[in-house]
Amino acid sequence: MQDNTIVIQAPAVASKRSTREWQQADAAHFLHPFTDFGALAKKGSRIITKAEGIYLWDSEGKKILDAMSGLWCVNVGYGQNSLVEAATRQMKELPFYNAFFQTATPPAIELAELLAEVTPPNFQHVFFAGSGSEGNDTVVRMVRRYWDILGQPERKVIISRKNGYHGSTMAGASLGGMSYMHAQGGLPIPDITHIDQPYWHEHGHGMDKAEFGKVAASWLEKRILEVGADKVAAFIGEPVQGAGGVIVPPATYWPEIQRICDKYGVLIVSDEVICGFGRTGNWFGCETQGFKPDLMTFAKGVTSGYIPLGGVMVGDRMAKVLIEQGGDFNHGYTYSGHPVASAVAVANIKLIQQLKLVEHVRDDVGPYLAQQFASLKDHPLVGDTETCGLMGAILLVKDKAKNTAFPAEIDIGMVCRGHCFGNGLIMRAVGDRMIIAPPLVMNRAQMDEMMSLIRRCLDLTLADAT
Ligand code: PLP
């Protein structure tokens, strides 16, 4: 028999080119996500070339503190060898096989088992996908299938929230409440409706925060009654809205949402794509916010972003029906249960356990961040700060005493973000909110370093704005 293995020298990881050369090639061929293609082509992108711990380096050799964990995902920080080794080992052993047609691979089974261990006790089953968006597409199909099986096919409507983010596929973007996304491509798809977000600065002024939490939750009950309780399939939300600007709801919000959903038999979906895997100081954000979902979407932190993987944890209430009465579920992805991604996820979760990162966030750096962010309120630009675990937001205001916002044309968030880039710090701007979600491995000394960079950037922003 002929040996079909051809030995080819692996290419160098990245060829050496100047920043300008990278930018030219980038502009010529690469259409970036959520980007004005034309504007970026003129300006040139920033080229990130390596990373270690909580730091990145760009193609100019500049060191940058990554206070956004890549895109809310590098929970264990960069350069963790156990993840690299898990991927290498699995690639050599079995780089791919699918989970269709009654087959499985050991890493996917092991990951399913481990997820059942770290998620709340009512989650014993998982459906794998390749990303958070695919996970939320799965949610829509699974929720509707569940009600079909139970003989209530008219229960189709999913209630979500304005300014929530649930991904970029047709269903993900529809579940999300970003109006600028809906404006492109005729979204949302039918049977998805949005209520206002529990953002005190937008809707709650003059109201006690605990009271506001209940008022914001009552908007769900109102919408359920408008739609008709027998038509509502599920409510979906992020425990803490991430991309919307780290909107931390009052502690009264989610328990009241739970009460309302229970009252009308509506399923609860917790989108844990950002909040999962330790971000909020518990394994999952629903534990921090005090509610018990029926489904949980996850991605990002499950592999700390080292390799794409997402999915949906399916709670016992739904799993029982889908397994015992459902028959075929006609849905799935080539990469559902990808063995290499699963092996990396297993290594990542074990590392989170070994490093006790959940406890580290809950007992040490989470409270420390809360204290440090609270101390920023003495800054003339800072109208408020909010944190939950290792997520935080700084609200920039024009006049603290009168609580007035900057005019939109100043785009104060982008001014501040520019100073962050210039000073070796990655923070994200969402309107007038500057947000962070640093790697969970960050220690107090590194947090002090981050805080002094933040203060410097706020000072520079203030100088520009006055
Ligand atoms: N859900 C939430 C809460 C997210 O923040 C994101 C991405 O940022 C998604 C879903 C979509 O995940 P992905 O980009 O992996 O498709």
Task: Provide tags for this entry.
466 residues; alpha/beta; seven-stranded mixed sheet; four-stranded mixed sheet; 15 strands; binds pyridoxal-5'-phosphate
Number of strands: 15
User: Radius of gyration in whole Å, from Cα?
Assistant: 23 Å
Please summarize the sheet with the most strands.
7 strands, mixed
Distance between the termini: 78 Å
Form type? globular
Structural class: alpha/beta
Amount of beta strand: 15-25%
How many helices? The count is 17
Q: Low-confidence runs (pLDDT<50, min 5 residues)?
A: none
Helix fraction bin: 40-55%
Could you describe the 3D structure shown?
Pfam families: Aminotran_3. The protein has 466 residues and is an alpha/beta fold. The protein has 17 helices and 15 strands. The strands form three sheets. The protein has a seven-stranded mixed β-sheet, sandwiched between helices. The N and C termini lie far apart (78 Å).
Structure, briefly:
GO terms for molecular function: transaminase activity. The chain has helices spanning 19-29, 37-43, 69-72, 81-93, 106-118, 132-149, 170-175, 179-182, 200-203, 209-227, 253-264, 285-289, 316-325, 339-354, 357-375, 412-422, 444-465, and strands at residues 48-52, 55-58, 63-66, 123-129, 157-161, 192-195, 232-237, 267-271, 295-298, 310-315, 382-388, 391-396, 425-426, 428-430, 433-436.
